[in-house]
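Predict the holo structure. Ligand: glutathione.
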Amino acid sequence: MSDATYTPPKVWTWEQPNGGQFASINRPISGATHDKDLPVGKHPLQLYSLGTPNGVKVTIMLEELLARGHKGAEYDAWLINIGEGDQFSSGFVAANPNSKIPALVDRSSDKPARVFESGSILLYLAEKFGEFLPTDPAARTEMMNWLFWQMGSAPYIGGGFGHFYAYAPEKYQYPIDRFTMEAKRQMDVLDKALGERPYIAGDEYTIADIAIFPWYGGLVLGRAYNAGEFLTVHEYRNLLAWAQKIDARPAVVRGRKVNRVTEDKSEGVAERHDAADLDATIDTAAE
Ligand SMILES: N[C@@H](CCC(=O)N[C@@H](CS)C(=O)NCC(=O)O)C(=O)O
């Protein structure tokens, strides 16, 4: 291996900028950098997010709830441009002290509830509306297993594989090998489980599927890091078939279009305040 080595100093110091796509937003300290309130729209649920895999989990869930007729799941989705540092505003930090999208504020009662961490948001919404969460205790436990699996595993994909393979300013074999191994191992875990059942936790479509799809569905559908060929994703046939099935759900199509910064109107909307905002993107796509 020819990678240059680095001897860490006794005490690490922050040298800005350190290169890479996220150099301008990465900081070793938490908290707000500027005073700015979050906007509030007309619906009880206010989402502050971006159309990344973690953000899309929540918009898919909200669209699925609306598709099942839950009018109380109507929401305003505001764009948090993480490249511009919107996650460090005082308003966003009050909603999520961890400064990461997605963050949800439920204003349906006198005391607004803040909900952060995408897994926590999915569980909150599933419990609030009594959907996509098995009631049988054993099935619920299995669903939780996979929900927590996703929350613990995906950072190896995003912060590990994706970072070193696609985003790092220089490519090094050591981290790429390490995280490719883990990405493939995780896809194999899912592939084997999905060989035995239609959905990841059993016979029912649950929030575990909703959490896993944007990450691992994105990988096998070739949408992430331009890495489909590198990871030979076609080998994970059960995972691919499951991803194609989820991808075709109308609520998934809609949820994937929210909080997208794009010139192409058929690809999505930066903000969503009404069902009609997304209807317009679907109409445009059909033209
Ligand atoms: N564990 C968190 C992770 C959220 C996360 O990593 N969000 C990223 C975008 S996908 C973010 O906001 N990054 C901004 C930053 O790191 O400053 C969750 O699932 O909600």
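Residues 137-254 form a domain with the Glutathione S-transferase Yfyf (Class Pi); Chain A, domain 2 fold (CATH 1.20.1050.10). The pocket of glutathione is lined by residues 25, 52, 54, 82, 87, 99-102, 117-118 (CB under 6 Å).
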